[in-house]
Design brief:
Chain lengths: 262, 286
């Protein structure tokens, strides 16, 4: 199924395609902006045409022809089954337990899939002030499970987070249960190099699949803690013609729609 | 009953220095023209409330009209940082900005509690996260029936809420459609409210019996400002100027460039400038 264009595929494209594959046709997916939005729409345009995509602006069952720049572009509302108010979105649909997958990005992640999107340095004296949590803290706690997609580097995959914006598996097994959380939390992290999943016994992330052409050594150099690798380490299948063609057409339509920003 | 008047009069009569003001609109219908008028009238020490500060509060903060901000996501959507917001938080420029930070779920609930005349909102949220360690307004309550611990945040009760809407009728009833965000809750939670609209019509022609309509008697003042949500958008009138959102990154990154842009495009302009913006975006449609 892999193609002749494999040599030219970028790590970002492989990340989006691998992330899209994690979604099922009957999922109800709360979509984070950026990398998750590309992956979720690629899934809808390939193997999961009936997936329900929800954006926090209140759009339910949206089918955008181009990727939105913001979570509230008119394209999302115009192509949605229905659009509800923001309080209703967070109360009835997310807190109400209707969301099967919350798909998040992040600035930093730790070995237990906790996320930081708030601050680098002390909160009161920030070195870099990031945008903050937005919908993510409650997407992470109220979705039945959480997928995360982000680019791997020693600055993003860190030993210790300066701030926990969204709770993953805390300090390991039992952390979610201790807080009364009944949802699964992060079950899959898709990066530009590999796929990681929490170990069933410890909840520490372990690499379960390496993308084509990527070695264990390369992955380790891009991670700030000593990585664990699954005893059944797989290789991520390369992209199909349909996956890569659909993604590139989507990105091209998006580029034309949003303008360059002069 | 809403008074239909000029934007300058609407702001002058309804917003005072030091007050708490919410300018809402979740990506859609952001009241930029009204914010520019607030800047031109030189309001000071405002306590700003808004889920997503967006470019509108980047501009207000950079011009020094605010000393406090309540918010839940402070970025330029799909682009990156809000540089004026960051400069205020990281460096205190042009003045220190105190922040009270929440999640979207908490702020949406807090507006709803305000509209419902309740003292606080309750939600299943904030479990295990650090925000509750840095924001003393994130607390908890026990469910009196099950004992479950739930998060609690104070209701949002602005002195003034400012929104932009598609249209009003001549009595001052206002229609909002598309992504409706938290505008209804924010208006009903506030003591006073100002609405800018694309147009005033004889009949609202609401698309359904259940359309979002704010009755005239819930609104203090209405000003007609075509294009007043630019560079955000008004569904049915003009699209979001995504190119401008990208350009803002360069404009706002540098203090001098920002100040010059605000001088030429805000301080030396009036609300009528937004009419041209609207046509720019319509003509730019593919």
């Amino acid at each position: 199924m892999t193609t002749r264009v494999l040599d030219t595929i970028s790590p970002d494209e492989m990340m989006t395609i691998a992330a899209a594959r994690a979604l099922k046709d009957d999922d109800v997916c709360f979509v984070g902006i950026g990398a998750p939005s590309a992956a979720c729409n690629l899934a809808r345009l390939t193997h999961a045409p009936n997936i329900t995509l929800i954006y926090e602006s209140g759009t339910i069952g949206t089918r955008p022809n181009v990727l939105p720049l913001s979570i509230g572009d008119s394209e999302l509302c115009e192509t949605a089954l229905t659009t509800v108010s923001v309080p209703e979105m967070f109360r009835y649909w997310l807190q109400g337990g209707r969301v099967t997958v919350g798909f998040l990005g992040g600035a930093q992640i730790d070995r237990f899939a906790n996320l930081n999107t708030t601050v680098i340095g002390p909160y009161g004296e920030p070195k870099v002030r990031l945008p903050g949590g937005g919908g993510a803290p409650e997407i992470a706690s109220n979705s039945r499970e959480v997928f995360i997609t982000m680019t791997m580097s020693p600055r993003t995959f860190v030993e210790r987070l300066p701030f926990v914006t969204s709770f993953g598996h805390g300090k390991g097994k039992g952390s979610r249960e201790a807080l009364g959380l009944t949802t699964k939390g992060p079950t899959k992290i898709v990066t530009d190099l590999c796929v990681l999943e929490p170990d069933p016994d410890t909840r520490e992330l372990a690499v379960v699949s390496l993308h084509p052409g990527v070695t264990r050594e390369v992955v380790q150099t891009q991670c700030g803690w000593p990585l664990r690798f699954s005893s059944e380490l797989m290789q991520t299948p390369g992209p199909t013609d349909v996956e890569l063609g659909t993604l590139r057409a989507l990105q091209e339509r998006t580029r034309r729609a949003h303008g360059a920003g002069t | 009953m809403a008074e239909i008047c000029s934007l300058a009069d609407a702001i002058a009569r309804n917003l005072n220095d030091g007050e708490t003001v919410a300018m809402e609109g979740f990506t859609h219908l952001i009241p930029f023209a009204a914010a520019h008028e607030v800047i031109r009238q030189g309001r000071k020490r405002l306590r700003l409330v808004r889920m997503t500060p967006d470019l509108i509060y980047d501009q207000l903060i950079g011009m020094g009209v605010a000393d406090r901000l309540v918010f839940s996501w402070g970025g330029n959507p799909g682009v990156g940082s809000l540089h004026r917001f960051r400069d205020a938080v990281e460096n205190g420029w042009p003045n220190p900005l105190a922040i009270e930070e929440h999640s979207h779920a908490a702020m949406a609930n807090a507006y709803e509690a305000g509209a419902a005349n309740l003292p606080f909102a309750v939600l299943r949220g904030y479990q295990g996260v650090d925000l509750q360690n840095v924001n003393p307004n994130i607390r908890s309550v026990s469910c009196p029936f099950t004992g479950e611990t739930l998060a609690a945040v104070p209701a949002i009760r602005p002195d003034v809420t400012i929104i932009h809407a598609q249209r009003a009728d001549r009595i001052g009833n206002v229609l909002i459609e598309g992504i409706v965000g938290v505008q209804k809750q924010a208006v009903l939670a506030a003591k006073r409210s100002i609405v800018t609209v694309e147009e005033v019509v004889n009949e609202l022609d609401a698309p359904s019996f259940n359309s979002v309509i704010l009755p005239s008697w819930t609104i203090s003042a209405i000003a007609i400002v075509p294009g007043g949500a630019y560079p955000s958008y008004a569904q049915g009138y003009y699209r979001r100027a995504n190119g401008f959102y990208k350009s803002w990154d360069r404009i706002a990154r540098d203090r001098v460039t920002f100040t010059r842009w605000m001088q030429g495009n805000v301080l030396e302009q009036g609300p009528e400038a937004f009419l041209g913006h609207r046509f720019d975006v319509v003509e730019a449609l593919p």
